[in-house]
Amino acid sequence: MLRRLLPTLLALGCGFLALTWGLVSLQRLFAQETEDARQQLRSRREEVERIATEALRLKLRQQLEWSLPAINLAVEDPLVQADGLYLLFREYQFLPRLPRPRPGTQTPAKKLHEELRQALEAPPAPGPWQERLGLLRAVEAVLPKDVLDTPEAAERRLEALLRYRAEHPLPPAQEIPYTLLVVERLARGDASPWPVRGLIHGGLAEEFGGMAQGLGLQRELLRDCQRFTQADFDYLTERILAVSAELSEPSEAFRSRVQELGTGAIVLPSQMPEPTLIGARWYLEQQGEVVRGIAVEPAELLKGITLEMRKRKLLGAEDSVRMGRVDALQPVSSLKLDAVIPRGAAEEAQISKRYGLKTLLVLICGALAVAIVALAGLAQHRKYRFLELKSDFVATVSHELRTPLASIRLLAETLEMRAGGSPEVRDYPTRIIQAADGLHFLVENILSFNRIDKGRWVAQFTRVRLEELMGALRTDLASATRVPVELTEDVGDVELWADPGLLRLLLSNLGRNACNYNQSNPVKLSVRVHATPGHGCTVLFGDNGIGIPESEWENVFQDFYRVTQPGPEVHGSGLGLALCRRIMHLHGGNLRVATSGPQGTTFALTFPEPPPP
Ligand code: ADP
């Protein structure tokens, strides 16, 4: 059974392997396709992140460049706002401004200011102040209280005061209270002389101490704040604001700078070879001994970059960029922005979903293939099992028919002998014998066919003279048919390497067919041999029967195949020629129709060269 199933199983196995290979390749293709799609998404995101990061670096550089004039101005002028600006030169931080008043409650400057005011009222003043207070008194004496034009005398005396002040500078702790007193005494509201205004805010011309001393009280106090205690500083600030208001001099910037004082130092590494972000707030660039920088608002910058990229269609309406992990000291070159692309996440999910679906389909196909192979295997097994049972059954029945057939024949022969020439029974016994022989022949055919088909026939090869087989054929035909048969043979002394029993059966089949499918009288048979030395021989078996249509020449060798022919009906099983061809195959040869027509049919039996004796 397994032998019969083997070709089917092999075909199924090969088919299954091919299908598995196909499915595995398909799955690999899907995996590759998915990876490619993911890679494409990743590349797109990386490209967006690269562009965004580059834009951020550029913006930082640009913002610092634009802030350079502001930085220079803030260093020169203490009144200029320095918020968000950074400058370090030779390890001293100029911006944001570090100086702040000393802590403490002592008020030496306030005391000096009050003493000088009293001394102004009630001279004489202590030594060094004699001259300065004298000059102030002189100006005050000629400066009217409510006249808009300053008299020339007052101008000259004021000039002398300022010149003296420029030529005899005092330390800021004394100069600032004195100057404050001068301004307070000479202030006349809108009618104040211009140098008095300069002493508060605008500064003076160079000859009166401009640049060096004459920057104006507001700037001087800011510049020298660390020389005062907090209490003195607050006192002076309050008074400067008061006179500024009285003279309508701008004081907003001064008030703001006072509040900003001593914002704090920024600790930098000793070397900063490349632009760096400090604490994600300060962007600094070092050039030799100078470090310049600005405070940045990353959230604002990122917002701007996001908008720009949306405009350039690099980001969708819902996409944005954000800062990745930023260290306390982050070199800008290694800064990286992350792209937030919700659409990308959705696409990635879609890709995974598609891949899952395809994998599922492949798995289903695989499962179907397994199921189909299993079902086909089962169906084949059942089919062969059924055929096996059928052929076993036929074999058993045929086998069991042999014994009763033999008995029938024996009894018919006995009856023939006893009945002698009795007219009542006529030729009945002979006909019984012929019928039994026919049945016996059929049983032999079936049994032999079955055994050869199942490979159970063990052929007994021997050298057989063809002439001897012709004799056996003659005897068989004489008993099997009532029509006269003329057998002409031209076989010489040809010897075949064959199983004699099987060859007898074969020739009987051919001979009986020649008689059955024949309407001539007598039936003429001819057997000839063509021997080609070294290539075996061909036996040509001819008759004068009704012939076989050419389209059926091959079909007649199929199992149980019969040709419907005109003329009287001939009974048969359709097994004879199929058995004959199997017998020839068993001998290593073949059987075919050589010629056929209304004059008769010739079968060609080819035998291989017999082995050397
Ligand atoms: P069966 O004779 O039992 O029908 P065979 O296998 O011997 O089965 O023959 C198959 C068919 O071939 C026959 O039905 C017959 O039509 C045709 N056939 C066989 N031998 C001859 C012959 N010598 N002449 C004409 N027809 C033949």
Fold and architecture overview:
The structure is a single chain. By secondary structure, the protein is α+β, with helices and mostly antiparallel strands. Among the domains are: 85-93 and 267-340, no CATH class; 99-260, no CATH class; 427-607, Histidine kinase-like ATPase, C-terminal domain (Heat Shock Protein 90, 2-Layer Sandwich), CATH 3.30.565. Helix content is 55%, strand content 13%. The protein is built from 15 helices and 15 strands. The chain has helices at 2-76, 108-121, 129-142, 152-167, 172-186, 194-202, 217-223, 230-246, 252-260, 298-311, 342-419, 428-454, 466-480, 500-516, 576-586; strands at 85-89, 92-95, 276-278, 282-287, 290-295, 320-323, 329-331, 337-340, 462-465, 485-490, 495-498, 523-531, 537-543, 590-597, 600-607. The strands form 4 sheets. It has a 6-stranded antiparallel beta sheet. Strands 10-12-13-15-14 form a 5-stranded mixed beta sheet, with helices on one face. Strands 6-8 form a two-stranded antiparallel ribbon. Helix 1 packs across helix 10, helix 1 packs antiparallel against helix 11 and helix 3 (129-142) packs antiparallel against helix 4. The longest helix has 78 residues, at 342-419. The mean pLDDT is 89. Adenosine-5'-diphosphate binds next to helix 14 and helix 15.
Question: What is the element layout, followed by pairings?
Answer:
Elements: H1 2-76, E1 85-89, E2 92-95, H2 108-121, H3 129-142, H4 152-167, H5 172-186, H6 194-202, H7 217-223, H8 230-246, H9 252-260, E3 276-278, E4 282-287, E5 290-295, H10 298-311, E6 320-323, E7 329-331, E8 337-340, H11 342-419, H12 428-454, E9 462-465, H13 466-480, E10 485-490, E11 495-498, H14 500-516, E12 523-531, E13 537-543, H15 576-586, E14 590-597, E15 600-607
Parallel strand pairs: 10-12
Antiparallel strand pairs: 1-2, 1-5, 3-4, 3-7, 4-5, 6-8, 9-11, 12-13, 13-15, 14-15
The structure holds adenosine-5'-diphosphate.
